[in-house]
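SEVERITY: medium
COMPONENT: batch folding queue
REPORTER: lab tech (J.R.)

DESCRIPTION
The queue accepted two submissions in a row. Attaching both inputs and their returned structure tokens so the on-call engineer can compare them side by side.

ATTACHMENT 1
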Amino acid sequence: MAGWGPSMQRVGIVLGTALLAVAIGVLATAGKAPAQVPPATPTARTIAVAGEGEASATPDVAYVSVGVQTEGATAAEATDDNSRTLAAVLDAMRALGVGTTDLRTSGLSVLARFDTNRTTQVVGYTATNYVTVTVADVDRAGELLDAALRAGANRVSGVRFDIRDPSALRQQALTDAARSARARADAIAAGLGLHVVGVRNVQEEAYGGPVAAFPEIPAMAPSAPGPAAPPPPVQSGQQRVQARVQVVFLFE
């Protein structure tokens, strides 16, 4: 670099260094294969179906809810009369073998009654007290209901039948629901000339059956003396447990 000034010599050195770095990089990558792009994963083919299942059994427990409604000129008078009558109802239940732990207060109220023309004028009070009786022998539900009414109960808010431990029925209903979903998926796949090869996702949905109950019975006047009437007919029927599942099947 004879004849170059100091500044030109420095520029030449910088350019030479840059060219050397580029050359080294090219040589380093010359022997490497180009990067491979992974192939796209094919979209899984699925069939989404729902399945329902049901299992039933005879109820093994009943809940009878009865009450007493009384009226009085004062709240104390209505409540005292109500308490005496309800005590007689509870004694009748215990006389038939109902334990104290199977008697539970399920509703209690004392309400003022107003004059129909002047709504601010209190003309009396109404006391209402409900008790729920747990009946282990469902065949005796009618007998206990009849005894409560004869002892002075004048309200029946409901009779409900149930199964103490429905877990086994629940499992059976879920199994039936899963089988129903698989049968539907197989039918759809067969119609398309395909077949099910697996399961991608399963989801249980909230699903239940109806609960039988009696409607509210209004206050009843004491019956006239005569032959004793049979207990009111109470039929337990069958308790149903239902299940529903959503299943996404794989097919090919």
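ATTACHMENT 2
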Amino acid sequence: MYVRRGTNGYKNKFAFDDKVTISILLVAFLTALGVILLILTRPPIISPLPDSGYSFSVSAMEPTPSPKNPSKTEIIAYIAKVWEKEGVYEQAHAISCFVSESGLRADAYNFNSNGTSDFGIAQLNSIHNLPDEVVYDPYKNIDYAFKLYKRRGWQPWYGSGCD
């Protein structure tokens, strides 16, 4: 880079005649262009679960309920119905447990450090050799959770609301 005098008489230190300066600017421009292209062409996020028929929503609002994607109100009502004979305390305990486990999301899943996975509203563990309909159907997931609860109590669940 050389220094030349401008028309105002001051030295101009930003002459772009130098090959190194031009190379640095070119690399910076191409890097920025590459980042922009990467952001614009990134692939969609893919769930590790096979297509389950659930409709997912990225908005803060709850998606429109469907048989495979019930609203949280419908889920709470169904949990209360299934646990009805156990009494009000156990109904509330089940709802609290499943809220802490999955947020009552039918599409919730978790990969555990021991190589197993938890699925659905009740976060049922894959160690139970769950059939697909129990994994993907929120009502069958809750029904299976109730059968597991009848055999083992709250022992299979570790969420903060399951104590």
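NOTES FROM REPORTER
The chain has two domains: 4-40, 72-162.
No errors were logged for either attachment.
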